[in-house]
Amino acid sequence: MTTRPPTTVLVIDDSAHNRRTIKQLLESEPDVQVLDWALDGEEGLRKVVDLRPDVVTVDLEMPRMGGYTFLRLLRSAAPTPAIVISSHTHKADVFKALELGAFDFIARPAKPTPQALEELRTELLEKVRAARLVRRGGGARRLPTRLPREREPIEAPPFIVAVGASTGGPPAVQRLLEALAAEPTFCVLVCQHMPSQFTKAFADRLDSIGPFHVSEAKEGDRLAPGHVFIAPGGRHMLLVEQAGHLVLKTPEVAAKDRYVPSVDRLFTSVSKALGHKSLAVVLTGMGSDGAAGAKDVHHVGGEVWAESEETAVVFGMPQEAISTGVVKRVLPLGEIGPALLTLARRRR
Protein backbone atom coordinates (compact mmCIF):
# COMPACT_ATOMS: atom_id res chain seq x y z
CA MET A 1 0.00 0.00 0.00
CA THR A 2 1.49 3.31 -1.10
CA THR A 3 1.61 6.22 1.31
CA ARG A 4 0.51 9.58 -0.01
CA PRO A 5 3.34 12.12 0.15
CA PRO A 6 2.80 15.05 2.52
CA THR A 7 1.26 18.30 1.34
CA THR A 8 4.14 20.73 0.86
CA VAL A 9 3.86 24.39 1.81
CA LEU A 10 5.88 27.55 1.28
CA VAL A 11 5.33 30.24 3.93
CA ILE A 12 5.72 33.87 2.78
CA ASP A 13 5.71 36.46 5.56
CA ASP A 14 8.14 39.20 6.59
CA SER A 15 7.54 38.52 10.30
CA ALA A 16 9.84 35.89 11.80
CA HIS A 17 7.31 35.29 14.58
CA ASN A 18 4.49 34.68 12.09
CA ARG A 19 6.64 32.37 9.97
CA ARG A 20 7.65 30.33 12.99
CA THR A 21 4.05 30.10 14.26
CA ILE A 22 2.64 29.03 10.90
CA LYS A 23 5.37 26.41 10.45
CA GLN A 24 4.73 24.96 13.90
CA LEU A 25 0.97 24.81 13.37
CA LEU A 26 1.25 23.19 9.95
CA GLU A 27 3.83 20.62 10.96
CA SER A 28 1.81 19.57 14.00
CA GLU A 29 0.37 16.92 11.65
CA PRO A 30 2.55 14.43 9.72
CA ASP A 31 0.76 14.90 6.39
CA VAL A 32 1.94 18.51 5.97
CA GLN A 33 5.52 19.64 5.38
CA VAL A 34 6.81 23.23 5.25
CA LEU A 35 9.49 23.26 2.54
CA ASP A 36 10.83 26.74 3.22
CA TRP A 37 9.89 30.35 3.91
CA ALA A 38 10.34 33.71 2.17
CA LEU A 39 10.53 37.27 3.47
CA ASP A 40 8.55 38.93 0.66
CA GLY A 41 6.75 38.28 -2.60
CA GLU A 42 9.86 38.59 -4.76
CA GLU A 43 11.74 35.92 -2.84
CA GLY A 44 8.53 33.92 -2.62
CA LEU A 45 8.10 33.80 -6.41
CA ARG A 46 11.65 32.51 -6.86
CA LYS A 47 11.12 29.79 -4.29
CA VAL A 48 7.75 28.77 -5.73
CA VAL A 49 9.41 28.23 -9.10
CA ASP A 50 12.37 26.35 -7.58
CA LEU A 51 10.56 24.26 -4.97
CA ARG A 52 7.11 23.74 -6.56
CA PRO A 53 5.15 23.55 -3.28
CA ASP A 54 1.58 22.26 -3.30
CA VAL A 55 0.31 25.33 -1.44
CA VAL A 56 1.56 28.81 -0.50
CA THR A 57 0.56 30.87 2.52
CA VAL A 58 1.12 34.59 2.06
CA ASP A 59 0.82 37.82 4.00
CA LEU A 60 -0.43 40.88 2.10
CA GLU A 61 1.74 43.60 3.62
CA MET A 62 5.44 42.92 2.94
CA PRO A 63 8.46 44.97 1.82
CA ARG A 64 9.72 45.08 -1.79
CA MET A 65 6.89 42.99 -3.27
CA GLY A 66 3.62 42.76 -1.37
CA GLY A 67 0.93 40.14 -1.51
CA TYR A 68 -1.16 41.72 -4.28
CA THR A 69 1.72 41.86 -6.76
CA PHE A 70 2.77 38.37 -5.75
CA LEU A 71 -0.70 37.00 -6.50
CA ARG A 72 -0.81 38.75 -9.88
CA LEU A 73 2.52 37.23 -10.91
CA LEU A 74 2.00 33.82 -9.34
CA ARG A 75 -0.58 32.71 -11.90
CA SER A 76 1.77 33.16 -14.84
CA ALA A 77 5.03 32.19 -13.11
CA ALA A 78 3.94 28.97 -11.39
CA PRO A 79 0.20 28.55 -10.72
CA THR A 80 -0.11 27.45 -7.09
CA PRO A 81 -3.04 27.67 -4.65
CA ALA A 82 -2.39 30.58 -2.27
CA ILE A 83 -3.95 31.07 1.15
CA VAL A 84 -3.87 34.65 2.43
CA ILE A 85 -3.33 35.07 6.17
CA SER A 86 -4.56 38.53 7.12
CA SER A 87 -5.23 40.52 10.27
CA HIS A 88 -8.73 41.63 11.26
CA THR A 89 -7.77 45.26 10.70
CA HIS A 90 -7.52 44.82 6.92
CA LYS A 91 -10.87 43.22 6.16
CA ALA A 92 -11.46 44.69 2.71
CA ASP A 93 -8.00 43.63 1.50
CA VAL A 94 -8.79 39.92 1.51
CA PHE A 95 -11.57 40.29 -1.05
CA LYS A 96 -9.22 42.04 -3.45
CA ALA A 97 -6.79 39.15 -2.91
CA LEU A 98 -9.53 36.63 -3.73
CA GLU A 99 -10.28 38.50 -6.95
CA LEU A 100 -6.59 38.27 -7.83
CA GLY A 101 -6.76 34.49 -7.56
CA ALA A 102 -6.11 33.58 -3.93
CA PHE A 103 -7.65 30.22 -3.02
CA ASP A 104 -8.95 31.39 0.37
CA PHE A 105 -8.06 33.50 3.38
CA ILE A 106 -7.60 33.03 7.11
CA ALA A 107 -7.97 35.71 9.76
CA ARG A 108 -4.92 35.94 12.01
CA PRO A 109 -6.09 36.11 15.65
CA ALA A 110 -5.72 39.47 17.35
CA LYS A 111 -4.45 37.76 20.51
CA PRO A 112 -2.52 34.48 20.27
CA THR A 113 -4.28 32.72 23.12
CA PRO A 114 -4.04 28.91 23.25
CA GLN A 115 -7.65 28.60 22.10
CA ALA A 116 -7.15 31.07 19.23
CA LEU A 117 -4.02 29.26 18.08
CA GLU A 118 -5.78 25.90 18.16
CA GLU A 119 -8.62 27.33 16.06
CA LEU A 120 -6.04 28.79 13.66
CA ARG A 121 -4.26 25.43 13.46
CA THR A 122 -7.48 23.58 12.63
CA GLU A 123 -8.53 26.06 9.95
CA LEU A 124 -5.06 26.28 8.45
CA LEU A 125 -4.67 22.51 8.12
CA GLU A 126 -8.16 22.11 6.70
CA LYS A 127 -7.65 24.74 4.02
CA VAL A 128 -4.12 23.64 3.12
CA ARG A 129 -5.36 20.08 2.58
CA ALA A 130 -8.27 21.31 0.47
CA ALA A 131 -6.04 23.65 -1.56
CA ARG A 132 -3.85 20.75 -2.64
CA LEU A 133 -6.79 19.28 -4.54
CA VAL A 134 -7.41 22.43 -6.58
CA ARG A 135 -6.68 22.25 -10.29
CA ARG A 136 -3.68 24.39 -11.11
CA GLY A 137 -3.75 26.97 -13.84
CA GLY A 138 -6.33 29.52 -14.88
CA GLY A 139 -6.09 33.25 -14.55
CA ALA A 140 -7.10 35.58 -11.80
CA ARG A 141 -10.80 36.10 -11.36
CA ARG A 142 -12.40 38.90 -13.24
CA LEU A 143 -12.19 42.17 -11.34
CA PRO A 144 -15.49 43.85 -10.53
CA THR A 145 -17.07 46.44 -12.76
CA ARG A 146 -19.28 49.06 -11.18
CA LEU A 147 -22.82 48.41 -12.43
CA PRO A 148 -25.57 51.05 -12.53
CA ARG A 149 -27.97 51.09 -9.61
CA GLU A 150 -30.54 53.64 -10.75
CA ARG A 151 -33.91 51.89 -10.84
CA GLU A 152 -37.55 52.69 -10.37
CA PRO A 153 -39.05 51.20 -7.21
CA ILE A 154 -40.33 47.68 -7.85
CA GLU A 155 -43.87 46.86 -6.71
CA ALA A 156 -43.76 43.17 -7.66
CA PRO A 157 -43.04 40.62 -4.92
CA PRO A 158 -39.39 39.61 -4.75
CA PHE A 159 -38.13 36.49 -6.49
CA ILE A 160 -36.21 34.93 -3.63
CA VAL A 161 -33.08 32.83 -4.05
CA ALA A 162 -31.15 31.32 -1.13
CA VAL A 163 -27.45 30.77 -1.82
CA GLY A 164 -24.94 28.79 0.23
CA ALA A 165 -21.17 28.88 -0.23
CA SER A 166 -17.89 28.36 1.58
CA THR A 167 -14.34 28.14 0.17
CA GLY A 168 -14.16 30.01 -3.14
CA GLY A 169 -17.53 31.57 -2.42
CA PRO A 170 -16.92 35.34 -2.36
CA PRO A 171 -15.90 35.66 -6.04
CA ALA A 172 -18.57 33.12 -7.03
CA VAL A 173 -21.30 35.06 -5.21
CA GLN A 174 -20.11 38.29 -6.82
CA ARG A 175 -20.22 36.76 -10.28
CA LEU A 176 -23.69 35.36 -9.67
CA LEU A 177 -25.04 38.75 -8.56
CA GLU A 178 -23.55 40.44 -11.62
CA ALA A 179 -25.35 37.90 -13.81
CA LEU A 180 -28.67 38.64 -12.07
CA ALA A 181 -28.41 42.40 -12.57
CA ALA A 182 -30.83 42.40 -15.51
CA GLU A 183 -33.75 41.23 -13.36
CA PRO A 184 -34.93 43.81 -10.79
CA THR A 185 -37.21 41.52 -8.80
CA PHE A 186 -34.51 39.30 -7.30
CA CYS A 187 -33.92 39.21 -3.56
CA VAL A 188 -30.93 37.04 -2.68
CA LEU A 189 -30.14 35.52 0.71
CA VAL A 190 -26.46 34.58 0.93
CA CYS A 191 -24.99 32.29 3.57
CA GLN A 192 -21.21 32.44 3.13
CA HIS A 193 -18.91 30.70 5.60
CA MET A 194 -16.62 33.46 6.78
CA PRO A 195 -15.07 34.75 10.02
CA SER A 196 -17.49 36.99 11.86
CA GLN A 197 -15.27 40.06 11.51
CA PHE A 198 -15.38 39.90 7.69
CA THR A 199 -19.04 39.50 6.71
CA LYS A 200 -19.88 43.21 6.87
CA ALA A 201 -16.82 44.06 4.77
CA PHE A 202 -17.96 41.43 2.26
CA ALA A 203 -21.42 42.99 2.11
CA ASP A 204 -20.00 46.50 1.78
CA ARG A 205 -17.75 45.43 -1.09
CA LEU A 206 -20.61 43.83 -3.00
CA ASP A 207 -22.75 46.89 -2.33
CA SER A 208 -20.06 49.17 -3.78
CA ILE A 209 -20.09 47.22 -7.02
CA GLY A 210 -23.87 47.36 -7.58
CA PRO A 211 -26.52 47.00 -8.85
CA PHE A 212 -28.12 45.36 -5.82
CA HIS A 213 -28.37 46.97 -2.41
CA VAL A 214 -26.26 44.60 -0.32
CA SER A 215 -26.15 44.59 3.47
CA GLU A 216 -25.32 42.33 6.36
CA ALA A 217 -28.63 40.93 7.61
CA LYS A 218 -30.13 42.35 10.79
CA GLU A 219 -32.93 41.05 12.97
CA GLY A 220 -36.27 42.04 11.46
CA ASP A 221 -35.02 43.04 7.99
CA ARG A 222 -37.92 42.87 5.54
CA LEU A 223 -37.32 41.29 2.14
CA ALA A 224 -37.69 43.49 -0.92
CA PRO A 225 -36.79 43.31 -4.62
CA GLY A 226 -33.30 44.46 -5.51
CA HIS A 227 -31.82 43.59 -2.13
CA VAL A 228 -29.15 41.07 -1.14
CA PHE A 229 -28.68 40.04 2.47
CA ILE A 230 -25.45 38.46 3.75
CA ALA A 231 -25.70 36.19 6.78
CA PRO A 232 -23.97 37.95 9.69
CA GLY A 233 -20.80 36.35 10.96
CA GLY A 234 -21.18 34.43 14.19
CA ARG A 235 -24.97 34.16 13.79
CA HIS A 236 -27.49 32.38 11.57
CA MET A 237 -29.84 33.94 9.03
CA LEU A 238 -33.39 32.56 8.83
CA LEU A 239 -36.41 33.53 6.74
CA VAL A 240 -39.80 33.65 8.47
CA GLU A 241 -43.28 34.97 7.71
CA GLN A 242 -44.38 37.54 10.24
CA ALA A 243 -47.58 39.57 10.16
CA GLY A 244 -47.94 38.93 6.44
CA HIS A 245 -44.38 39.94 5.61
CA LEU A 246 -41.23 37.96 4.90
CA VAL A 247 -38.58 38.99 7.38
CA LEU A 248 -35.17 37.80 8.54
CA LYS A 249 -34.18 36.46 11.91
CA THR A 250 -30.56 36.32 13.05
CA PRO A 251 -30.47 33.95 16.04
CA GLU A 252 -27.39 33.20 18.06
CA VAL A 253 -25.58 29.93 17.51
CA ALA A 254 -25.96 26.81 19.61
CA ALA A 255 -23.11 24.68 20.89
CA LYS A 256 -24.14 21.85 18.56
CA ASP A 257 -23.94 23.99 15.40
CA ARG A 258 -21.15 22.71 13.17
CA TYR A 259 -21.32 25.51 10.60
CA VAL A 260 -21.82 29.18 11.42
CA PRO A 261 -23.59 30.71 9.65
CA SER A 262 -25.46 27.57 8.60
CA VAL A 263 -26.59 26.98 5.02
CA ASP A 264 -28.74 24.09 6.23
CA ARG A 265 -30.64 26.32 8.63
CA LEU A 266 -31.15 29.01 5.97
CA PHE A 267 -32.45 26.50 3.42
CA THR A 268 -34.74 24.83 5.95
CA SER A 269 -36.22 28.19 7.00
CA VAL A 270 -36.79 29.10 3.35
CA SER A 271 -38.62 25.81 2.79
CA LYS A 272 -40.95 26.57 5.70
CA ALA A 273 -41.60 30.18 4.64
CA LEU A 274 -41.95 29.71 0.87
CA GLY A 275 -43.02 26.10 0.39
CA HIS A 276 -43.04 25.03 -3.27
CA LYS A 277 -41.66 28.43 -4.31
CA SER A 278 -38.39 27.74 -2.47
CA LEU A 279 -35.22 27.96 -4.55
CA ALA A 280 -31.80 27.06 -3.12
CA VAL A 281 -28.42 27.19 -4.85
CA VAL A 282 -25.31 25.44 -3.50
CA LEU A 283 -22.03 26.95 -4.67
CA THR A 284 -18.40 26.01 -4.12
CA GLY A 285 -17.25 25.04 -0.64
CA MET A 286 -15.77 22.48 1.70
CA GLY A 287 -17.89 20.19 3.82
CA SER A 288 -21.52 19.12 3.67
CA ASP A 289 -23.41 22.22 4.80
CA GLY A 290 -26.53 22.68 2.67
CA ALA A 291 -27.21 19.00 1.95
CA ALA A 292 -29.73 18.52 4.77
CA GLY A 293 -31.43 21.84 4.01
CA ALA A 294 -31.59 20.89 0.33
CA LYS A 295 -33.68 17.85 1.24
CA ASP A 296 -36.11 20.08 3.15
CA VAL A 297 -36.48 22.36 0.12
CA HIS A 298 -37.14 19.37 -2.12
CA HIS A 299 -39.63 17.90 0.35
CA VAL A 300 -41.96 20.93 0.03
CA GLY A 301 -41.73 20.96 -3.76
CA GLY A 302 -39.03 23.60 -4.15
CA GLU A 303 -35.97 23.45 -6.39
CA VAL A 304 -32.32 22.89 -5.50
CA TRP A 305 -29.50 23.75 -7.91
CA ALA A 306 -25.77 23.14 -7.51
CA GLU A 307 -22.57 24.41 -9.08
CA SER A 308 -20.84 21.82 -11.24
CA GLU A 309 -17.40 20.38 -10.57
CA GLU A 310 -15.88 22.09 -13.60
CA THR A 311 -16.13 25.55 -12.02
CA ALA A 312 -16.35 24.90 -8.26
CA VAL A 313 -13.10 25.82 -6.51
CA VAL A 314 -13.93 23.06 -4.01
CA PHE A 315 -16.66 20.60 -5.04
CA GLY A 316 -17.41 19.40 -1.48
CA MET A 317 -20.69 21.20 -0.73
CA PRO A 318 -22.20 20.84 -4.22
CA GLN A 319 -21.21 17.17 -4.33
CA GLU A 320 -22.77 16.46 -0.94
CA ALA A 321 -26.01 18.15 -2.03
CA ILE A 322 -26.03 16.24 -5.33
CA SER A 323 -25.47 12.96 -3.50
CA THR A 324 -28.81 13.40 -1.70
CA GLY A 325 -30.60 12.92 -5.02
CA VAL A 326 -32.70 16.09 -4.67
CA VAL A 327 -30.68 18.52 -6.84
CA LYS A 328 -32.65 19.39 -9.97
CA ARG A 329 -29.95 21.19 -11.95
CA VAL A 330 -26.13 21.05 -11.90
CA LEU A 331 -24.61 23.95 -13.82
CA PRO A 332 -21.26 25.71 -14.27
CA LEU A 333 -21.15 28.97 -12.35
CA GLY A 334 -21.44 31.07 -15.51
CA GLU A 335 -24.72 29.38 -16.45
CA ILE A 336 -26.47 29.61 -13.07
CA GLY A 337 -27.29 33.33 -13.32
CA PRO A 338 -28.78 33.21 -16.85
CA ALA A 339 -30.79 30.10 -15.89
CA LEU A 340 -32.17 31.89 -12.83
CA LEU A 341 -33.16 34.85 -15.00
CA THR A 342 -35.07 32.54 -17.31
CA LEU A 343 -36.83 30.87 -14.38
CA ALA A 344 -37.75 34.20 -12.76
CA ARG A 345 -39.29 35.52 -15.97
CA ARG A 346 -41.19 32.28 -16.52
CA ARG A 347 -42.67 32.43 -13.00
CA ARG A 348 -43.99 35.96 -13.33
Automatic annotation (TrEMBL):
SMART domains in alphabetical order: REC
Role: Involved in chemotaxis. Part of a chemotaxis signal transduction system that modulates chemotaxis in response to various stimuli. Catalyzes the demethylation of specific methylglutamate residues introduced into the chemoreceptors (methyl-accepting chemotaxis proteins or MCP) by CheR. Also mediates the irreversible deamidation of specific glutamine residues to glutamic acid.
Gene this protein is translated from: cheB
PTM comment: Phosphorylated by CheA. Phosphorylation of the N-terminal regulatory domain activates the methylesterase activity.
Keyword Phosphoprotein: yes
PROSITE patterns, sorted: CHEB, RESPONSE_REGULATORY
Location (main, coarse): cytoplasm
UniProt family annotation: Belongs to the CheB family.
Gene3D superfamilies, alphabetized: 3.40.50.2300, Methylesterase CheB, C-terminal domain
Name of the featured protein: Protein-glutamate methylesterase/protein-glutamine glutaminase
Residue stretches making up the CheB-type methylesterase domain: 153-347
